[in-house]
Automatic annotation (TrEMBL):
It catalyses: Endohydrolysis of (1->4)-beta-D-xylosidic linkages in xylans. Its EC number is 3.2.1.8. It comes from Microbispora siamensis. Belongs to the glycosyl hydrolase 10 (cellulase F) family. Residues 395-405 have a biased composition (Polar residues). Keywords: Carbohydrate metabolism, Glycosidase, Hydrolase, Polysaccharide degradation, Signal, Xylan degradation. Residues 350-405 are annotated as: Disordered. The gene is xynA_3. It comes from the Bacteria. This is Beta-xylanase. InterPro entries: CBD2, CBM2/CBM3_carb-bd_dom_sf, CBM2_carb-bd_dom_sf, GH, GH10, GH10_AS, GH10_dom, TAT_signal. Residues 385-486 form the CBM2 domain. The active site is at E280. Residues 351-378 have a biased composition (Low complexity).
């Protein structure tokens, strides 16, 4: 697809006009543990979040604080989703409307609700040319540089330890032009193309436990120039040690515009050593055509181990930013659409997410047929199989529990290559904390846990595993853990 079916920049004022042009503006995320645990072995899960959790993934929705007084909206969110992205509330214009004065009231409303339900939270977004307050445009280069860093520090600092992944930079690449062309913005004009790297470095320092994503639209086709540009940037970041953990495919699509190589595209990004998240999925259309498109996108994600979750950009067509395209899974009355059932079935058919990330080379052959798997959903005990990070994976199992505490064993497994050194991370659903740990080294504290190998168990042969263990305070929990190795 050489064209960009997407609203070229999601700016609020532009939405109405652009929507008419959207032949297909076309993204996703979630925490699954509690829900997964409630699915009996071998049974199909009955909600999107629980179904995604069975393969260690999340299924999220964009939520607008302004609709949280609609009880059906909140009930549907709570029932179906185990992750959330604030739709507008964390953007620069909402969080820092005037320089140095920060407001988090609306975003906090979403975050505290999500936390009370044990949901994963995606932070969206720190550096973006849209929904940017006008004061930013008037700054000198050096002022802009310090304002950008200050914005990242304050917003990430406010939510430190609570965010699963941040969209650090949003929509920086141009829609036309040669591979690697950035969109002209106040950031490129004053800071040069290096602003992206600067933002990622600042973000890592501000919250070392959050995954840092680059997020964009029209990077769904494996061969599109824009996709190649983002691919090359991530490859370069990885080669030079610039911190980046994930790429977000917004995937604002229409029924006819899901690229045939969509799965191959996810696989090629994953092969660079980053997670892939579908971050803003909506697919204009209706009926079986829309359902088929949603099925294909879902299967493309579940077929790639490092595709860790999907977020739909809203719950109901009624409140969608593209409501005229009826692009979501629930109609205006919150009834489940055909697309909903297609997604639920595809999630339930996913195989457990245990294999190491594939090492497919970028973009060659047509995409393999998506998930052929039609068998019943896998057994979910003891914990959802985690997404694979790097060359290793980790699974947490509760081995004992008592009022106010529990004991767990974490199995760290190498993929198809040997691992030399590993780091396992997870976020507690609520209130848990490690009281003692063995066979590993813990760093940091609070709800986000990081455990690296002990001096004697960092080397794991291909396909083999090692374990570490801990006792913890709070109620037994088996959150999804990620594993990375240098
Ligand atoms: C959209 C919101 O859904 C609208 O409510 C708002 O008016 C404009 O922004 N890309 C993004 C999202 O990264 O933040 C945009 O969200 C959609 C396009």
């Amino acid at each position: 697809m050489g064209e960009n079916p997407l609203p070229a920049d999601g700016g609020r004022r532009l939405v109405g006009t652009r929507r008419l042009l959207v032949a297909g503006a076309l993204g996703v995320l979630g925490t699954a543990t509690a829900l997964a645990a409630s699915v009996p072995a071998g049974a199909a899960a009955g909600t999107l979040g629980a179904a995604a959790a069975q393969s260690g993934r999340y299924y999220g929705a964009a939520i607008a604080a302004g609709h949280m007084n609609d009880s059906t909206y909140v009930a549907t969110w709570d029932r179906e989703f185990n992750a959330v992205t604030p739709e507008n509330e964390m953007k620069w214009d909402a969080t820092e409307p005037s320089r140095g004065s920060f407001r988090f009231t609306s975003a906090d409303q979403i975050v505290s609700h999500a936390q009370s339900k044990g949901m994963k939270i995606r932070g969206h977004t720190l550096v973006w040319h849209n929904q940017l307050p006008s004061w930013v445009g008037g700054l000198s280069a050096s002022d802009l540089r310090s304002a950008m860093t200050n914005h990242i520090n304050n917003v990430m600092g406010h939510y430190k330890g609570k965010i699963y992944a941040w969209d650090v930079v949003n929509e920086a690449f141009a829609d036309g032009g040669a591979v690697g062309t950035l969109r002209s913005s106040v950031f490129t004009q004053k800071l040069g193309n290096g602003f992206i790297e600067e933002a990622f470095r600042a973000a890592r320092a501000a919250d070392p436990n959050a995954k840092l994503c680059y997020n964009d639209y029209n990077i769904d086709d494996a061969n599109a120039n824009k996709t190649r540009g983002v691919y090359n940037m991530i490859k370069d970041f990885k080669a030079r040690g610039v911190p980046i953990d994930c790429v977000g495919l917004q995937s604002h699509l229409s029924s006819g515009s899901v690229p045939s190589n969509y799965q191959q595209n996810i696989a090629q990004f994953a092969a660079l050593g980053v997670d892939v998240q579908i971050t803003e999925l909506d697919i204009g259309g209706s009926g079986s055509a829309q359902a088929d498109a949603y099925r294909r996108v879902t299967q493309a994600c579940t077929a790639v181990p490092r595709c860790t979750g999907i977020t739909v950009w809203g719950i109901t067509d009624k409140y969608s930013w593209r409501s005229g395209d009826t692009p979501l899974l629930f109609d205006g009355n919150f009834n489940k659409k055909q697309a909903y059932t297609a997604v639920l079935d595809a999630l339930n058919a996913a195989t457990p997410n245990t294999s190491p990330s594939p090492t497919t080379s970028p973009n060659t052959s047509p995409s393999p047929t998506t998930s052929p798997n039609t068998s019943p959903s896998p057994n979910t005990s003891p914990s959802p199989t985690p997404p694979v990070g790097g060359a290793c994976s980790a699974t947490i199992e509760t081995t004992n529990s008592w009022p106010g505490g529990f004991q767990s064993t974490v199995t760290v497994r190498a993929g198809s290559s040997a691992v030399n050194g590993w780091t396992v991370k997870w976020t507690w659903p609520s209130g848990q904390s490690i009281s003692s740990l063995w066979n590993g080294t813990q760093s940091g504290s609070g709800s986000s846990v990081t455990v690296s190998n002990a001096p004697y168990n960092g080397s794991i042969a291909a396909g083999s595993s090692t374990t570490f263990g801990f006792t913890a305070n709070g109620s037994a929990a088996t959150p999804t853990a990620t594993c990375t190795s240098p």
